């Protein structure tokens, strides 16, 4: 894909994602950050026009009806939001035990694996990455 096609894909995905979440305030910023991170970390060879088209179609279905697609998008954004903020409460101690630090950094690995499997089965491109910053 050319650079211009990648920019257009970013804009289309972001715009359709905003429509799917109905521009709700915490989800809008989480969506922006997640799509921005995916496009910054990915290379031009990673982007597939067919996957992007299927993802846009998935987001359009999430916009039209309050069905399975909408619930998937809503729950993805909720988990990403809680992942970014470190859960409901931040730890009060600065020096966490090694075991707790390992748990916080690997807690979302199974979740990301499920997103990868969803991407492969539906041939879409939902970003599945964890920012490894537990504190």
Notes on the protein architecture:
With 135 residues, the protein is an all-alpha fold. The protein has one domain (3-122). It contains six helices and no strands. The chain has helices at residues 3-20, 25-41, 49-64, 68-85, 98-106, 109-122. The mean pLDDT is 86.
Layout: helices, strands, pairs:
Layout lengths: L2 H18 L4 H17 L7 H16 L3 H18 L12 H9 L2 H14 L13
Helix pairs in contact: 1-2, 1-3, 2-4, 3-4
Overall mean pLDDT? 86
Distance between the termini: 37 Å
- The geometry reads as globular
How many β-strands, per DSSP? 0
What would you call the structural class?
mainly alpha
Q: Stretches where pLDDT falls below 50 for ≥5 residues?
A: none
Rg calculated over all Cα atoms: 16 Å
Number of helices: 6
Number of domains: 1
Strand content is under 5%
Biggest sheet layout = none
Helix content: 55-70%
N-to-C series of helices and strands = HHHHHH
Protein name: DUF1763-domain-containing protein
Provide keyphrases for this structure.
135 residues, mainly alpha, 68% helix
Summarize the structure.
This protein has 135 residues and is an all-alpha fold. It is built from six helices and no strands.
């Amino acid at each position: 894909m050319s650079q211009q096609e990648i920019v257009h894909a970013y804009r289309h995905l972001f715009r359709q994602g905003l429509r799917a979440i109905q521009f709700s305030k915490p989800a809008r910023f989480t969506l922006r950050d997640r799509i921005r991170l995916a496009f910054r970390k990915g290379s031009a060879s990673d982007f597939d026009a067919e996957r992007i088209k299927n993802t846009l179609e998935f987001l359009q279905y999430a916009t039209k009806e309050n069905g399975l697609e909408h619930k998937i998008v809503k729950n993805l954004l909720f988990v990403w939001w809680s992942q970014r903020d470190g859960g409901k409460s931040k730890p009060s101690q600065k020096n966490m035990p090694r075991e707790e630090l390992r748990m916080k950094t690997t807690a979302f690995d199974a979740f990301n694996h499920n997103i990868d499997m969803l991407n492969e089965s539906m041939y879409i491109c939902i970003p599945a990455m964890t920012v490894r910053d537990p504190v």
